[in-house]
Amino acid sequence: MKPNLLSILLLLLIVSCQPSKESSEEKWLSNASPSEQGFSSTFETELDNYIQTAINDTIIPGGTFLIARNGRIVYHKSYGEIAGTNIKNEGIYRIASMTKAITSVSIMQLVEQGKINLDDPVYEYIPAFKNQVVLDQFNSSDSTYTTLPVDKPVTIRNLMTHTSGIVYGSFNPGKIMAVYDQFDMNVGFTHPTWSTEKWINRLAEVPLAHQPGARFSYGLNMDVMGRIIEVVSGQKLNTYFKEHIFDVIGMEDTYFYLPESKHDRLVPLAQKINGTFMSTDQLGMSALTDYPKQGPRDFFAGGAGLSSTALDYARFIQTLVEGGGDLLGSEAMAEMTKDQLPLVINDYENYPKGPDGSFALGFQLYQDKPTKKSPKSPGTYE
């Protein structure tokens, strides 16, 4: 979920899609000079200047920037400040939709273990999804609406490809947002009183924006998947992530809710007001400021709820770049990163194909070189 507020820019780039032939456990994500990894002698200076110019021009307030190639870190620096707080490499960021990738890998672990089938109906795991309906007519004068029955049930694969009809209400002004507001569903990070179970059961009552498989619609799908992980594993989502992802690859600073000892490392959110970046503390926006320091600690948003550091997330990305490592086997990785839309779009032959990518399981997929100016290569997934 992309917040409307301008957050600190967190840039995490894995430049090579191939593991280094020289990499070893001792060298994995250790520092290396840019020249050792094939960068030009002016690379570091040029990037320093580029970032500083963006700060000087108030395009960004600052950020943490990490670039790795062949499993070695060639650039890891932080710039800028928010409300007098200097941004440091160990800063913890609210990573929002970058949470989705971790949820996707967790689901594929359960698929790999035979505990989930991608084409299972969601209601087999969460009965509240048994009798879903689709939004039909909407009366803007009184916000009443009519619905239609679904043509077919939403599946796990629909959720992971954002083709279920579950959307972000806040991203769809008009009738969709109005309906989501009626169910108090324009949330995505935390809730003061709800548990994940209550949230997702309530989401099941919201009419779908369209029939399952009709089209791609970005939304709260991975949050439903987070609840399915809880149901299948018997663990709360934070516990599952810690035991099966974070502890496995050494992600020591990634949480849904920060321990008090790490509160001071949370990088403030910022918004530009009259040409100056101000923190949400200064703006009195406590709902955003308090999370993830405070919350019910029983609400875990698999689509947007995590906070992490650049280095922690680089560990996760590098594990995927190197074929899944200790997280996923090769078959699960191959399935997760292949084009899925032909399998889920009802009329794929006549479906408008985007020039800049398709969708895999939880990841956008670039099969061809993007038409726009972009560093992405064919095969990139993000």
UniProtKB/TrEMBL annotation:
<dbReference type="InterPro" id="IPR001466">
    <property type="entry name" value="Beta-lactam-related"/>
</dbReference>
<dbReference type="InterPro" id="IPR012338">
    <property type="entry name" value="Beta-lactam/transpept-like"/>
</dbReference>
<protein>
    <recommendedName>
        <fullName>Beta-lactamase-related domain-containing protein</fullName>
    </recommendedName>
</protein>
<dbReference type="Pfam" id="PF00144">
    <property type="entry name" value="Beta-lactamase"/>
</dbReference>
<feature type="domain" description="Beta-lactamase-related">
    <location>
        <begin position="48"/>
        <end position="340"/>
    </location>
</feature>
<dbReference type="InterPro" id="IPR050789">
    <property type="entry name" value="Diverse_Enzym_Activities"/>
</dbReference>
